[in-house]
Design brief:
By secondary structure, the chain is α+β, with helices and mostly antiparallel strands. About 55% of the residues lie in helices and about 10% in strands. It is built from seven helices and five strands. Helix 5 links the parallel strand 3 and strand 4. It is rod-shaped, with a radius of gyration of 55 Å. It starts with 7 loop residues before the first helix and ends with a helix.
Length: about 280
């Protein structure tokens, strides 16, 4: 039997199939080439992006290295300056000497001298507050009490005033007249303090010992002012019976507590009393 012949339709289908397969292989090759080209382009782009960072890192390392070398050089110069030729060990060159060795000698500055003179002035005024005061001219009726930074002149109220009165007596005027030159020989402030005993007083003029002690201190201040003592230096204070010297239960104690004190205050003592 003879083989059947292929029909023209079947032959055209086979040719078309071969053409499609060939076209598919071509497309696959083109796709592979495109993928390879894309991969190469990405690598080139990545390298281009990384190159500046690499250069920056290299420059940063170089800057660090140069800083370290500069520091070592400075340290070497300082060591050579300390151990320079013709200078003793540890001696600084003139350009590196401290400021205290400049205009003023170390330890003898103007501030130190001023502080020393100030301290000496304070010690002179407080160590001997009677210095320059003619206390030898005072009579026996004035008691002189020396304390740290002050001098007090204590006078019994029995000499200065009559009982329960604040007007100076003739004997009181005589005693205070002896005290005026002493007060004028000093420039310190003067505090005139009046004291009473604890016996109460009730009168139209003095309702209590507060008024009596204050009035007596004021009478002394007015007399001193009229005899040339600057009023800016003085102040009058009344303490009544709050600062007794002795026991108020006895006649002698009450007599000691009735007194007037004139206190010369140095500036230091005035600040302590204000505090």
């Amino acid at each position: 039997m003879t083989e059947p012949l292929e029909s023209p339709a079947i032959g055209s289908v086979g040719a078309a199939r071969k053409a499609l397969l060939e076209r598919q292989r071509q497309l696959e090759q083109e796709l592979a080439q495109a993928r390879q080209a894309t991969h190469m382009a990405r690598r080139q782009t990545a390298n281009a992006v990384r190159e500046p960072d690499s250069e920056g890192e290299a420059e940063g390392w170089l800057i660090t290295y140069l800083d370290m070398m500069t520091l070592l050089l400075v340290l070497l110069v300082v060591m050579l300056a300390f151990a320079g030729k013709g200078k003793g060990a540890g001696e600084l060159p003139q350009s590196l000497k401290p400021l205290s060795e400049g205009v003023l000698p170390a330890g003898s500055g103007l501030l130190e001298q001023a502080g020393r003179s100030l301290r000496n002035g304070e010690s002179d005024s407080t160590s001997n507050p009677l210095q320059g005061l003619p206390v030898d001219q005072l009579g026996k009726d004035i008691e002189v009490i020396v304390k740290e930074g002050s001098v007090s002149f204590r006078i019994s109220s029995e000499i200065l005033f009559s009982s329960a009165q604040a007007d100076l007596s003739l004997e009181g005027l005589r005693v205070l007249q002896q005290l005026v030159p002493v007060l004028n020989s000093s420039r310190h402030d003067i505090v005139v303090v009046g004291h009473t005993d604890s016996l109460p007083i009730r009168s139209a003029r003095f309702p209590s010992n507060w008024e009596l002690s204050g009035a007596r201190a004021g009478s002394v201040v007015r007399y001193l002012e009229s005899n040339g003592v600057a009023r800016q230096r003085m102040r009058a204070v009344g303490f009544a019976d709050t600062r007794p010297l002795a026991d108020n239960s006895t006649l002698e104690g009450r007599a000691s507590n009735r007194r007037v004190e004139l206190i010369l205050e140095t500036p230091q003592a005035a600040e302590m009393s204000d505090d």
